[in-house]
Specification:
Elements (H helix, E strand, L loop, with lengths): L13 H21 L23 E5 L5 E5 L9 E3 L1 H14 L5 E5 L5 H14 L4 E3 L10
Parallel strand pairs: 1-4, 4-5
Antiparallel strand pairs: 1-2, 2-3
Length: about 140
């Protein structure tokens, strides 16, 4: 008689452990990217989203303490941006706008900030060569939600 073996009823979990470790590495690498940026309390305003063809907009963030940060979109997403002064903003933004004149420019300002500060930043950006400057807001919370 031939020596017959019983079928093995155990599951080989080694491939599942390998997949789990790869997913763990991916999540560990992407988690810091999700918690980046300058902490700005945006004003609520009903506005439509803009479908912008440019992938990396120039975003100027202004905190409540008037600190200004310059960030060039998605390429530097892990960075909170470069801190600039109102005096060096024209030079820094001008370099980017000369290299990429089609880049979209947005201002993200804290809602408790003085209106004059936002206008000052926008006028400096226009002097630097920005054709139009957009404002970033948070959508208002719906009543009864």
């Amino acid at each position: 008689m031939a020596n017959r073996r019983k079928p093995m009823s155990e599951i080989n979990v080694v491939p599942y452990i390998d997949v789990m470790l790869v997913l763990l590495v991916i999540f560990m690498a992407t988690a810091p990217l999700l918690t980046q940026g300058v902490n700005v309390d945006l004003p609520n305003a009903p506005s439509a989203t803009i479908d912008d063809p440019t992938e990396d907009p120039l975003v100027i963030s202004v905190r409540a303490d008037s600190a200004i940060f310059l960030n060039l979109g998605i390429d530097n997403a892990e960075d909170e941006g470069t801190r600039v002064t109102i005096y060096s903003l024209e030079d820094q933004a001008g370099k980017i706008l000369r290299a990429r004149p089609e880049v979209a420019v947005y201002v993200k300002a804290d809602e408790s900030l003085d209106y004059g500060e936002v206008i000052r930043v926008m006028s400096v950006l226009q002097k630097a060569g920005a054709q139009s400057v957009g404002l970033i807001t948070d959508p208002p919370e719906l009543a009864g939600g």
